[in-house]
Amino acid sequence: MKKILKNRCFLCLLTAIIVGTVSISAVTYFPSNQTTYDNKASGLNATNVQDAIDELYKKADSSTITSSKLKDLVVTTGSGLYADEYEEGRYIYRGNYVDNYITFNNEEWRILSIEKDGTMKIINLTETGASSSTNTTSWGNTTWTNSNVNTYLNGTYYNNLSTTAKNLIVARNFNVGNLGTKTETNLQLAVQSEKTSKWNGKVAILTVTEFLRTNTRLACANFPNNVSYYGSNCGGTTWINYVSNKGWGIPSLGWLLNHYKDNNDYHWVFYLGSLTTVRMSNNPYETSFPVVHIKSGLQLSGYGSKTNPFIIES
After folding, report:
1. Predicted structure pTM score
2. Helical residues (DSSP H) of the chain, grouped into ranges
3. CA-to-CA distance for 38 and 16, rounded, in angstroms?
4. What are the DSSP E strand ranges found in 115-237?
């Protein structure tokens, strides 16, 4: 078995890691080589998250683990991988400091969720991934299906991905139902409304409720409570909190997949961890961060940190 290099980075505010059926509860937060865990009943020797992941490698008797094994690292408080309370069998990364980095298309991507069917939903939040970093793509006065962003991401952007990356992407349904603040008065209703319309394809962007569910702060993870024009109150409790200026002299906001139900000329966007008030649909200054599903059962190495991301081995 090849040597596994540990990444001694700062950990997220994890307070529970479950390895198989054994619970390891973190009781303090330090760099990973100093973290103290309450593991008296665990029967494991793990004293930090990297060692807990090593347990998965040891159980597999391999230097790689299948992507489905990441579900063994579920937490219930702090930052980390959570069971999605709104969609059974689905897991989503929540919080500010999460080790969900993965190398895809020779670029830095982040794992958004592990879906019920075992596929991983990943997002590129870098300038390389942003469609409007080199192409100022306006949305157009329409919904996702006929939008300029859809055309760009599933045309020019997809065609420029490596052959290896294309072979890993699978087409799946994306929830594109419209949302409004008058009818969707809580997150559960918003999730249901998104599901009223679906688009099947390879490359899309975040939905409104996926964005909200990455936040661990209750007020910030709800709808429509989160709506705050250029608000930054929620930026510290989600890992999706960065959209650059791009040198245009105005903040660049991130497009979200769902149209604004209350006014067809407007669309949902996000900024610094918050849903903003909606922007005009033909605004050319917003950014589109690609989201794709990749195959289930992939073999991964690494630890998911920024400096030692998960690597797809096969």
Report:
1. 0.81
2. 49-60, 148-152, 158-159, 163-168, 187-194, 208-213
3. 9
4. 120-123, 169-170, 172-175, 198-201
